[in-house]
Amino acid sequence: MNSSLGDHGEFSSSSFGGLEKTMRLPARRKISCVLPGNGNTGFYPIPPASTMKMMVLSFCSCLATCLLTLNFAVLSALPEPPFLAPRRGVARRWRRERFLERCQMRRLRLMELVAT
Length: 116
Hints:
Helix content: 40-55%
Order of helices and strands: EEHH
Number of strands: 2
Strand content: 5-15%
Distance between the termini: 136 Å
Largest sheet: 2 strands, antiparallel
Radius of gyration: 45 Å
Structural class: mainly alpha
Number of helices: 2
């Protein structure tokens, strides 16, 4: 091994800026793992990514359909809300009733005055 080589890289003076440390990429390691379906018993093969996407999409679609159906069922089971009369009509009716009460009170007072 060369004395100018370190654990992390090589010192080089070829650049314009002077001595700089150039990084070497770490060596690739072979990773040995047991993949299902390679002749090992007890493992099931992993479905391809497209199949997993379709399963997730199907699940989300079924869930959305169920929630929409539940929403429709609940809303159709509820009674209709009460119909509120227009506020203008309610205010007019209240004024009319109040006016008639005052008229009756005045008429009663006049009848008392006339009777005495």
